[in-house]
Amino acid sequence: MSEKPAVVLVHGFWGGAAHWSKVIVELHRRGFTDLHAVENPLTSLADDAERTRKMVRQVDGPVLLVGHSYGGAVITEAGDLPNVAGLVYIAAFAPDAGESPGQISQELPPAAFENIAPDSDGYLWLKQDRFHESFCQDLDADEALVMAVTQKAPLGSTFGDNVTSPAWKKKPVWYQVSAQDRMIHPDNERRMAQRMNPRKIVELDAGHASLASQPGPVADLIETAADELGS
């Protein structure tokens, strides 16, 4: 029986659970055998938080919740369950009570903000021909193309959904900043990280999709969190 906690991975906007593929392989290689990746509907923060809670409730034992991008807002909202032992943020939003990802982005707009486009049904897309430069400039063109074509668009209203009770005020936290992020301003990431008083902040010379471009260092931070919780 593994002594490592279960890890529940939560994706963000314009992606799905498969965005964690390289991190999953890396964690499994390191002995993490209880791995889960939520597939969020991206229809509202409440819907996504509830989907994440349902997965966490299925785990018998402590859970380390890991969120990328908007997934950070989801784990902030859903991380209040008693078996959630800690929160790891990967280039992610970490809103306070009454804050939304959209509000945080408007206060300090990221470089690629203008490459987000609404459709006639109310979904927000990252323009396919701008996806590589915006979301994952440090991946190769083929990988970026697949991400662009398979992107999962959120309902635009989700951007404005406020966090109610931030789990990071009660749970231990770790944070990874992407210094070359064009989807969340790096200074916003630094500000959100610092106000949570995390156990550790790691800054990578990476774009927004650090979970795909630097899965080793991302897995290092998750493993550090797991080890510290275990001790």
TrEMBL record:
Which InterPro entries does the UniProt entry name for this protein? AB_hydrolase_1, AB_hydrolase_fold, Sec-Metab_Biosynth_Hydrolase
What is the top-level taxon of the source organism? Bacteria
Which N-terminal stretch is annotated as signal sequence?
none
Per UniProt, residues of the AB hydrolase-1 domain are 7-220
Protein known as: AB hydrolase-1 domain-containing protein
